[in-house]
Design a protein that fits this description.
Elements (H helix, E strand, L loop, with lengths): L1 H7 L5 H4 L3 H8 L3 E5 L3 E2 L12 H13 L5 E5 L5 E5 L1 H9 L4 E6 L4 H12 L7 H18 L17 H9 L3 H9 L5 H8 L5 H7 L4 H14 L5 H12 L5 H9 L13 H4 L9 H24 L1
Helix pairs in contact: 4-5, 6-7, 7-9, 8-9, 11-13, 12-14, 13-14
Length: about 300
Amino acid sequence: MVKSNVRNMNLTSVDDLFETDVSREDKQREKVLDIPLSEINDFPNHPFKVKADEAMLEMADSVKQYGILVPALVRPKADGGYEMVSGHRRKKASELAGKETMPCIVRELNDDESVVAMVDSNLQRESILPSEKALAYKMKLEAMKRQAGRPGKENVSQVGTQKRSDQLLAEQCGDSRNQVQRFIRLTELIPPILEMVDEKQIAFNPAVEISYLTEKEQTELLETMKLEENTPSLSQAQRLKKFSQEGRLNADVIYSILTEEKPNQKQKFNIQKERIDRFFPKNFTDKQKEDLIIQLLESWYKKRQREQER
């Protein structure tokens, strides 16, 4: 019986007996490790775009000269390797610089903690596209709502009162709660229209109103915008939304609203392309044709003025 009790006892190992507080703290302290780039996977549905643009090429040159100065943040994956939480641009720059490893902080994070950390680190960037902010806000808000059901999480303020997750998100990111919700509305846009918002072809406020249209209605609107080379004003977008909510929006209504003359719209002078294309080289763009026509008209106008002054 005594032998059985001895076997069931949790005996402290010799290493644990002589382990100091300093060594125990050192084990718990996060360390920076050089991790092979091939072992680091991107964050699932990462909302921030990593482009090989001029800024990225400059970052790659910096990495070649000085290396990565700020370690990335990764979390270990259950099936091996790591998942990037913060540092996607640094990883891309390292790849372009021909590096095989990059310095990373390895941290144990659950899914929701990873989302919050990923969004917070990227929202600090100077330039963020509307689509990036929209998707990031949505991902973080959903994570915060899941965390809100757990005791001791960020949905409880210091005085113990409950706060809405979107209000907490607004306080953390510096936008109003209404503006946070408006950004999240952009995630309801079909990808081509959301891209037009990023490229500033459609203003933010009309885009929010358009987001209430169904996918089919948005597709019909996109086709009309391309055909007419026109985008809706805020008041037009609000009317499109109203017709949609009433179940009366169709291709004809979209065309009628989009082609009406706006109060501040200047009258256009149109010339059929077939009448002037033969005067230009085939590789001329529409902008080049327009510029040349203006130059010729200016020359003609100045010549007329000189003749009248004689």
